[in-house]
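thought: fold this chain, then report.
action: predict
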Amino acid sequence: MTSPKPSFPRRFRLQGTDGIRREVRPSNDPALKGLSPLQAFLDQGVMTDEFMERYAYAHMISLIRDKQLKRGDACVVGWDPRDTQGKYTGAVVRGIRKAGINALVLGVVPTPLAPMVMLYQQAGGAFMVTASHNPKDQNGIKIFLAHRGMKLLPENDITLTRTLLSLGSIRNKPLTGKRIDKRKEALDLFRRFSLDEENSWSRDVSFQDILLVVDPARGSLTGIAAEVFKKAGFGKVIELNNRLNGDVNLRSGVADLEGYKTISRSMTVKGSGMFTRHAAILKLFELGKKHRGKLRSGKLRLSGAVFDADGDRFYRLDYHPNKDCLLVLSGDETAYLQAEYLMKRDPEKYKDTVYINTVESDLNTLRAVARLGFKPQLSPVGDKWVLLRIALLIIETRLKGFKGAKAAALKKRLARLKQSDALDVSALQKLEAQIDQARIGNHGFRDFPFAVGSEETGHNITLGWMDGGQEDGMPVFCGNGLKSALNTFAASQFLLGGQSVARYYTRLEKPFAPGFKGTRYVYYIHQEKFCNSSAVWHRVRKCILRSGRERDYRGRVIPFREDKDMLYISLASPKGNQAGVFVRNSGTENKISVNLRGAKGDASALKAIGEQAVRILFTALKNQDSHHYKMELDLLSRIAAQPLQETQVTGSAQRVLMEMAKQKLVQPSAGGWRLTPLGSWYITSAPE
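observation:
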């Protein structure tokens, strides 16, 4: 007797913020015996190679049914280097081919190259097999659509999910699509794109005085970024963390830098520092000591370019010779420098253009770019929402200034689209096709009123141009860590190159007057328990509003139609400052965050409000069946008994220990890892 198929809500979707990501295990893992690929995904929280094959196949079938693809068309596929045996990447290629679609295979490449090749080759879609900044035991799939290189919006997620849920067996389906190697052509395209002066912004600057340490996080930009930096004219380029052994993001990459404004030398001291084994940081301190004289005189700049495993995120590090520390420039600071460069370089072009960033950013970023002359916009977390705003702005720009019945009807459709809760890329595509048919509207992008799209996590978007396509080039909008790095260095050289050493580092440390940013995490949870109007959602809402009132803050809930499950509370301080507290599930990891944003003077109050909220999440959401949760409890018990040396932790426990530190449950000390006050509270407060 077969068990009945599980039922799902009508609008159920498997995807998170950016596609799917999970811990991976092979289909023949004994622990998964008797489970279907879908059951393994839903019940055990793991992706198998068979699941990934079915997911790719389902997306191809969805596009075929929607007449976006036909059999014999092409789909691009690339990946980061975590899957050294090719078990999961091979599964995605099989899924494409079983649907009768030709797979244009790029191999190990940075994420932005997948949509670039898709647009360049006029392919019908693109997959990137990656878990981005997540640990090496996880993998995932990002999907790009042919229309403007956009990512799936909620309606597209739902369609794909329904197709996947309705699939029968595809195990014996033949590979009717071809496998076509496009790696060499793709890498040539990426190098040309990266070194084009219009994309790198290097026309008016020299990088000769920069000694650059490159950290590709053992990921997709290994070898590629260093080569581009050398050809772009950097004085000397040193690449570290460049072994392609599958250990992506391990003691490397952007994720380790999140939340830090500066890194002191004491933080690299063995046994008591957070960065004792981070090779790029250690090298920067080593070189800083060696070249202190030249750095203090201004003859040399010592910087780091840090990426994530799939190369779409970038953080900048700069050694400060007078303070003997590293300055950490996140997506907020790098995007602001890029925006300031654009405005100073061409004020007539960029005056009143749009600057988009997400709710994760420092609230002062929007105020600062407004003072520069940009029109700031706030979006939910995820570059797909930045891309959506860009796509809507394209349509709006095409219709601007045109009158008549046809134009009026199209403008009404655009207005309805902006207010719709059913967010679907095909609706945008159809509207643009109608504009084409009406033969009205502007097709050019040279005067497109967009400047920068930014995520605090280092995922920045600026307009780029590929050869081919339209006469003046093909416009490209995608998060590109290498482009962001080149643009940021070009911006600082242009804006700060002639300033005194003291002024140079003062401006780098604070490109704009920063506010307060704080983020608290809780890992290994039942994410489904925190959603709009759930019991936990309401408890946290009441807690934040009550805690705010106790400190004389006026609070109100701000809904975001794109991310309805995010709880965003705007707070007005007694002094009239605006602050924000928002709580949301991560769409890429099994965690939830309490995010605190406001003025410097609000830091103490916001921290207290956040502490109360995060304690509710610790007790209400922890998943006691998670093997990582059990490992966390074991490590906490060991540390409570006596300080734990990092050398005593091996395998998956190393990852859990780092995630315990991110939750502020433990902290390093000279004697080893110790409990924090929160950690001591947590081990005596069992989850509900």
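thought: worth noting. The mean pLDDT is 93.
final: tokens above.
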